[in-house]
UniProtKB/TrEMBL annotation:
<feature type="binding site">
    <location>
        <position position="164"/>
    </location>
    <ligand>
        <name>Mg(2+)</name>
    </ligand>
</feature>
<keyword id="KW-0479">Metal-binding</keyword>
<dbReference type="InterPro" id="IPR024932">
    <property type="entry name" value="ApbE"/>
</dbReference>
<keyword id="KW-0285">Flavoprotein</keyword>
<dbReference type="Pfam" id="PF02424">
    <property type="entry name" value="ApbE"/>
</dbReference>
<dbReference type="InterPro" id="IPR003374">
    <property type="entry name" value="ApbE-like_sf"/>
</dbReference>
<feature type="binding site">
    <location>
        <position position="280"/>
    </location>
    <ligand>
        <name>Mg(2+)</name>
    </ligand>
</feature>
<feature type="binding site">
    <location>
        <position position="276"/>
    </location>
    <ligand>
        <name>Mg(2+)</name>
    </ligand>
</feature>
<protein>
    <recommendedName>
        <fullName>FAD:protein FMN transferase</fullName>
        <ecNumber>2.7.1.180</ecNumber>
    </recommendedName>
</protein>
<keyword id="KW-0449">Lipoprotein</keyword>
<dbReference type="GO" id="GO:0016740">
    <property type="term" value="F:transferase activity"/>
</dbReference>
<keyword id="KW-0808">Transferase</keyword>
<dbReference type="GO" id="GO:0046872">
    <property type="term" value="F:metal ion binding"/>
</dbReference>
<keyword id="KW-0274">FAD</keyword>
<comment type="similarity">
    <text>Belongs to the ApbE family.</text>
</comment>
<keyword id="KW-0460">Magnesium</keyword>
Length: 326
């Protein structure tokens, strides 16, 4: 039997908690908190939304006034002094780059100039253009000075982007803030990048459903996710097809070419930030290397759907245990 599955879909039951949907960071966020009454729930949700908007202003590459845009604008010119928070995020991202052997890399963003996944591309960029852009990529080149909290991209044309880690980071931060504020349980779901803590209002554990892409109404399996994050990479809408090969919006920073072969990668990890970055890295690594890699990491699990809708899981995942009975 071929097992088919797609994006994890959080289904929040009626007694789960207070809930709000909001467009943030260019995607749909879905926030749920357990609270004593509607009034306090509203205050908590306002807090979380403000926190996510604050992070967006820090890391957005679209907002020309963000510190991230300043770093990119000053590439090849001068270091930019940034908030410690942004400095630390870049440092952690570079740590994940080392861990993934460069499959995840903030400086992939220089390649944004030659690849577009919104339907506007009509042919492959020529080799020379790819070669020239990939020369501007490499996390090792980012100069971080902890003394002055400054970041320098030493070459004109270098660029960083948080597309593969920002939503996860924002989800973690919103969760931390709410936990500190005393919220006993909740879920921050950034379009499939989610983190959960505590239990639902009715005392049951939070669960995430892995859905069947051929019938999104049906859950294929339910995974308990209390105090865990789960993130899916793979956007069914963002890809290009050239000569029968489907290229995704995730690019191998080492070659400059988009990855192919994986339709979605779902990573379970203690933190959404790490899960987010690893899900992206797995796309670049491919099925076999991705599974081997994840199997070596404690507390991290992986579900891959390939182009034939076939399922590949890491050693820690036993689908039979969690199989939904519908
Ligand atoms: P999704 O957008 O499907 O949730 P990701 O979290 O993996 O998936 O984010 C993909 C985005 O990350 C891309 O749209 C791009 O902005 C950025 N990106 C692409 N390739 C890489 C890479 N190798 N390393 C870091 N960021 C990347
Ligand atoms: Mg990611």
């Amino acid at each position: 039997m071929i097992i088919v599955l797609g994006f994890p879909l959080m289904v929040v039951g009626q007694n789960a908690g207070y809930h709000r949907a909001e467009r943030l960071m260019g995607c749909n966020f879905d926030l749920t908190v357990v609270a004593a009454d509607e009034g306090s729930a509203k205050d908590y949700l306002d807090l979380a939304v403000a926190e996510i908007q604050r992070i967006e202003r820090l890391i957005s590459s679209w907002d020309s006034t963000s510190q991230t845009s300043a770093i990119n604008r000053m590439a090849g010119t001068a270091p930019v002094v940034v908030d410690r928070e942004l400095f630390d995020l870049i440092q952690r991202a570079n740590g994940i780059s080392r861990l993934t052997d460069g499959a995840f890399d903030l400086t992939y963003a220089a390649l944004d100039r030659i690849w577009a996944f919104d339907g506007s591309m009509t042919r492959m960029p020529d080799r020379e253009a790819v070669r020239a852009s990939v020369a501007k990529v490499g996390y090792r080149h980012i100069r971080l000075d902890p003394e002055s909290s400054s970041v320098y991209l030493p070459e004109a044309g270098m660029k960083i982007g948080f597309g593969a880690i920002g939503k996860g980071y924002a989800a973690d931060r919103a969760r931390e803030l709410l936990e500190r504020a005393g919220v006993k349980g909740g879920i921050i779901n950034a379009s499939g990048d989610l983190t959960a803590w505590g239990t639902r209002a009715d005392g049951q554990e939070w669960k995430v459903a892995i859905t069947n892409p051929l019938n999104r109404e049906k859950a294929f399996a339910w995974f308990p996710i209390s105090d865990r994050a789960v993130v899916t990479s793979g956007d069914y809408e963002k890809f290009v097809t050239f000569e029968g090969v489907r290229y995704t919006h995730i690019i191998d920073p080492r070659t400059g070419y988009p990855s192919s072969g994986i339709v979605s990668a779902t990573v379970f990890a203690p933190k959404a930030e790490l899960a987010d970055a690893l899900a992206t890295a797995v796309f670049v690594m491919g099925i076999e290397t991705g599974l081997d890699f994840i199997n070596q990491l404690p507390e991290i699990d992986l579900i891959i759907v390939d182009e034939k809708n076939q399922l590949h899981v890491s050693n820690g995942i036993d689908l039979e245990v969690y199989r939904a009975d519908n």
